[in-house]
Amino acid sequence: MESATTPHISALRKTPLNALHRRLGAKMVNFGGWDMPVEYSSSGGLIAEHKAVRASVGVFDVSHMGDIRIRSGKKPGGALAAVQHISMNDASKLAIGQAQYSAMLYPEGTFVDDVIVHRPGEDDFLLVINAGTREKDVNWVRENTKSFDCVVEDLSDAFTQLAIQGPRAVDVMRKLADADLNGVKNYWFTYGTVCGLKNTLIARTGYTGEDGFEIYVPSDVATSEKVWGQAIEAGREFGIIPCGLGCRNTLRLESKMALYGHEISDKINVWEAGLHRYCKMEKGDFIGRAALERANGAGLKRTLVGIEMVDRGIARDEYVCCNEAGEAIGVVTSGSPSPTLGKNIALAYAPPAFSAVGTVLYVEIRGQKCKAQVVPTPFYKRPKKAAAPPVS
Amino acid sequence: MAYPKTYRYSKEHEWIEVKGDVATIGITDYAQHELGDVVFVELPKPGAKIETGKSFGTVESVKAVSEIYAPAAGEVIEANSELQNTPEKINTDPHGAAWLIKIRLTNSTGISDLMDAAAYEAYIADKGKEASA
How many structural domains comprise chain B? Predict the structure, then answer.
């Protein structure tokens, strides 16, 4: 038996919670050069962790994510101009305390990385970036903001980032934080006291498709372990469990959230990835805009589709999609059993002619042509929330 | 979970129990733990020939696909069809009810080279040390 998740041990980077994960008996894997927990047998494993987040609440160590701060230099406006130049969404629309999903693009209109842009101040932006692309992103941002009146700081190692995710995440956060969370709507953030730590960034963001928060605390081991411990303690009555990157992937896939190197990369452009609504062509020039305008005129050759297996078999990342005749037409970018739906789902790039819901296509699984069909995405959408209970 | 003394074990984490010229093959508790929640099993049909060291099927968890290698050569006489609907049994009873296939051995060459329970336990203990180093 050989597993695709064979642990690697050489020179991997570790988050401040690495020792804690190992004490908890987590199964550790190499994720983009980081030694990260994929699942915890003490939590019941990947499926149990996935279901806890959908039904109640789970906590993730996502300290491997990077953070870039861009502030204006001598005069106001420099930071905003820089952010507008290097990202595709319209950061001028952000109120202070608001965040947006965006992406940094190459001149070709393909992806450097996707990011969440936070605006803590009029002239202050915080970009949260992916772990595997940290150095590349930081260098790219520094290089492309040179001509702007701004200061770029890499704060990636300054924070331990915890994601508390699920419908009961807000109840856990109410116990942990001294801050008005009612005013913090989806993709907004605030600064408050968390576990006694003043001025802690509390953002209502996540990568699971559920309601949830991400908190950024100082990255020393003692503080990191203390906050993790208090989150577990506060969440006990809601059944909180530690969750690994395994379920983070299945949760984000069900919600059709892109993963760098899979749905988005330096080979895929914004239109193909279907991220139009985060790309504001009318905001003015930005890196990648001209190429996207040209691509718009040329028409799409491939598009991201959601598929569900009809035949037995699991479509996996990089499996080939083919037509009835067995000719290759596309490729799976992410595929997995869906713990919520009990079906085998996947995202794949295919020609637009194969993108209509109900279209049949095939996935080649170990030499066998297995039937699949295009389904609506996201595969899972969280139920609309009932009115929040009054806070005493 | 105990490793039955009457079984033999491969480095690829399969076990084999030989009774006369019939052998039962499965994956070990260590293997199922490494895989995580098993959700899919693909096994050969009765009559299929399997060869020592060659893949004869796959076991999939949510995260990963694992090839299963034959610890001995023979002809498949039965595949555990219950696993099609209850693959998770591989997580709970890998050494018992969740056996994968029974084969009629072509010959017993190589089986005595496989590890016994004590040697296999030492082998996986070593792996555990590596992983936590």
Answer: 1
Residue at B84 is within a domain: yes
**Which residue type, as a one-letter code, is found at position A155?**
L
Chain B CA closest to residue A250: B62
Instruction: Pick the residue from chain B with its C-alpha nearest to A19.
Output: B132
What SS3 class is residue B106? coil
A3 contacts B66? CB cut-off 8 A: yes
Distances in Å between the Cα of B85 and the Cα atoms of A250, A278, B90 are 21, 42, 12
Cβ pair B13:A1 closer than 8 A = yes
Indicate the length of chain B as a whole number: 133
Q: What is the pTM of this model?
A: 0.93
**Contact at CB, B64 and A27, closer than 8 angstroms:** no
Q: Among candidates A133, A153, A151, A139, which has minimal Cα distance to A82?
A: A151
Domain-located, residue B2? no
Model confidence pLDDT, tens digit, residues A87-114: 999 999 999 999 999 999 999 999 999 9
Q: What are phi and psi of A221, to 5 degrees?
A: -60, -45
Question: Which SS3 state, helix, strand or coil, does residue A102 take?
Answer: strand
Write the pLDDT tens digit of every residue in A181-238. 999 999 999 999 999 999 999 999 999 999 999 999 999 999 999 999 999 999 999 9
Reported in sequence order, the residue ranges of B62-100 that DSSP labels E, i.e. its strands, are: 65-69, 74-79
Residue B33: list chain A partners with CB under 8 A: 41
How many residues does this entry show for chain A?
A: 392
Kindly report the CATH number assigned to the domain that includes residue B81: 2.40.50.100
Using a CB-CB distance cutoff of 8 angstroms, which residues of chain B are in contact with residue A38? 36, 63
Cβ distance A2 to B67 less than 8 Å, yes or no, reads: yes
For residue A237, the one-letter residue type is: E
Determine, yes or no, domain membership for B87.
Answer: yes
Is B96 a member of any domain? Answer: yes
Distance (Å) from the C-alpha of residue A44 to the closest C-alpha of chain B?
A: 9
> Given an 8 Å threshold on Cβ–Cβ distance, is B61 in contact with A27?
no
Phi-psi category of residue A227: left, alpha or beta, with phi > 0 → left and psi -120 to 50 → alpha: alpha
The ipTM (two decimal places) reads: 0.88
- Closest-CA residue to B40 (of B87, B82, B80): B87
